[in-house]
Design goal:
alpha+beta; disordered N terminus; Pyridox_Oxase; FMN binding; Pyridoxamine_oxidase_dimer_C
Length: about 210
Amino acid sequence: MAIDRLREGDPGGPAVHPEDFTLSSDPWALFAAWMAEAEASEPSDANAMALATADADGLPDVRVVLLKGLDPRGLVFYTNAESAKGEQLRANPQAAAVLHWKSLGRQIRARGPVSPVTPEESDAYFASRHRDSRIGAVASRQSRPLTDRPTLMAEVAALSAQYEDGPVPRPEHWRGFRIEPLQLEFWQNGAYRLHDRVRFTREGEGWARSRLYP
């Protein structure tokens, strides 16, 4: 599926394809196509997304995480559930996320309720990580005060010695979360700020599509 790119006339923008992405009927197919193009064009971390959560008082917070799973069930990321974001999701299990690809002049927004993935999914992803990343996840008390970097590195060294060449078990508090979008919005840069936008809103088992002004 060819995807519309930057508009002619935007300085440095590539040529336009004839297909109009705002006419797509399947947001997940469109999401997958844009991800594939981003992975080929972005210099690093094409799966980086800004994740916004809010605490029990409604105060918002945002940080960049990595999108690690994408299918019609939702968007999956992994974190320490005892971190600030984990506590916020426990108090208010809803989130919004945006992926922005400067090289393509595109972004995708998503928002909806959040739920934990299964322990089996968390185990499988944790086991796929580099061994040093697994040890780092065990050592890190994410979001909590740290005296200095040598303290962290000493904990990493101790864990490396403890596990030697054996398996590094996933901590119970380290797990995946899935955003189950109620809305997905696709944005394409256009010349002179005349961008293209389409929003998909969940309706039962399907989606309602609406093109938006820039």
